[in-house]
Amino acid sequence: MKLSPNLRLFVLLLLALTLSAGVVVFSERTHRRLGEANQQIASSTEAQGVASELLALVIDAETAQRGLLLTERPEYLEPYVVALPQVRPKLSRLREATAGAPDIQARVDRLGELMSERFSELDASLVLYRERGPKAALELMRTDFGRRSMDRIRREVDAIQRALRTDLIERHQSWNQDVAFSRLGLAIIAGLNVALLILVYIQARREIVQRDRQRRGLVEQQRLLEEQVQERTAQLSELSSNLQKVQEAEKAKLARDIHDELGSILVSARMDVSWAARRVEPLDPPAAQKLARASSTLDEGVQIKRRIIEDLRPTLLDNLGLAAALSWHVNQACERGGLACQLALPEEELDLPSPVSIALFRVVQEGITNVLRYAKARKVWLSLEHTDAGVSLVLRDDGVGISPQALSHRLSHGIVGMRQRIASLGGSFRIGRVAGGGTAIEVFVPLPGREPPPSSGAPAAPRRVGTVS
């Protein structure tokens, strides 16, 4: 059965991991064996040193005893006094260092017995020196008994050291064999790992090439889809802009029709009612009151007609410019909603293209409507600034602030409409919560191809600031 590429790669990686784990286990075991060998070598080396030290202690003690007997000076006995308490601890160290060699430990026990006998002889000569004088002690010293004891001690120490050297040589050879075996094993495992890594690399390279082909195909498909999306988005944006233009044209036509037809009807009816009221008043006062009320109702109709016309297509925008239209609309809206407003608008009439003026006006109109409906605000601020680069507009309130859901909701047509109006002019539109509370709308519309105004050295025209409560 043929394995899939992913399964082959998995099997190769599993083998590599298994060999790597084997390398770790083998290295750990080898390390432990080498550590034990090093410890045993150190113990053998220490045992040789301790054996030499014990022999030196016996020799020092014997030399001190002879110096005392020959010179009768007590200070010559000091090495003997120093050596005597060191014998037992060093014998214990020697036994610990040779714990793994029973034959050597037997010799160590024999050495301990010989040294005990020798120190007993030295003690007996010193007792004889104190009791019967130096001559008797010297006679005892001249016998061969002490020499034979020292010879047996030297032979035992030599035998222990030879056994330790033999053991040390064997352990060195075993250590070298372990090192060689470890190197060979590591080399074999390393070679296998390298071979597996090469196989893994080849398999991974094939996978990478195949996935790269797939990725390039997906990128090409994504590019085609993005081009289609951009094309459709451009079409929809153009359609939206065209619909807004058509809508503005229809609103303007409807405003003119209402002004020309309904306006003339309302004004004519009001004039006729006023004339009739003046004639009827002396003859029938109740009828005159009815006519006066009808005249007042017609006045309200004229006002409603004017407000509808201004909402559809503000006449101030066409006659007096953007700043005047914004001032009138914001003041009227704030009066109806019981809000305070602060306006910072240029005094001079702005020379702006009609699409720019109507777009900025509609943004403010929609923004003020949202403030009145949702913001629960007490005050709004509006600023308009005209520079050489373009027109900047900021509308801010102190209400509850727009929610993140409203910003991201795809059915927030008011925000989408405002953004689309500004985008169709190549401008930027931003809306968001203000740190101190409320919502801010920031708009910038560039005016390309405009010549900067001539500099006359005079200060800029002051801004008109109005407040309505």
CATH-level-2 architecture of the largest domain: Up-down Bundle
End-to-end separation in angstroms reads 87 Å
Shape estimate: rod-shaped
- Assign the CATH topology of the largest domain: Four Helix Bundle (Hemerythrin (Met), subunit A)
H/E series, N to C? Answer: HHHHHHHHHEHEEHHEEE
Strand residues, percent:
5-15%
| Helical percentage | over 70%
By secondary-structure content and strand pairing, the structural class works out as: alpha+beta
Kindly give the count of domains. Answer: 2
- Write out the strand line-up for the largest beta sheet, numbering strands in chain order: 4-5-3-2-1-6
Outline the biggest β-sheet: 6 strands, mixed
What is the number of helices? Answer: 12
CATH top-level class of the largest domain: Mainly Alpha
| Number of beta strands | 6
- Give the overall average pLDDT: 78
Radius of gyration: 57 Å
